[in-house]
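Here is one chain, start to finish.
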Amino acid sequence: MTTSAKAQSDVQGLRLLIVEDEVLVGMALERALKTLGCEVIGPAVYLDKAIALAQSATMDGAILDVNIAGQKVFPVADILSGRGIPFLFATGYGLEGLREGDKDKPVLQKPYSFAELIRIVARWRSLDS
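Its structure:
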């Protein structure tokens, strides 16, 4: 099985929320995840939309940019935590940009590798088992 076939089998069918205010980054991520057979929710480019989706959408996990149009994404993280939905932070700030209570969450330093993203997201499937 090739790496891309393995990645596809690991994440195929997962419903993932993307919260990303950089439109081109969000579109590229959406396209890549859809190519692997994921269902993408969003991308949400504003915090209010991200909060609404976090509260109501059915999902297996979320990819959260820390800074959304000048606002921190932490209210979304809190909602997802309350719902028991796994998420990761994608940020240029690294751990320094997170709240103390979020430093145990997966963090991808921008620019991140898509392979690393898939490795983390694939673990979420096992949480449903």
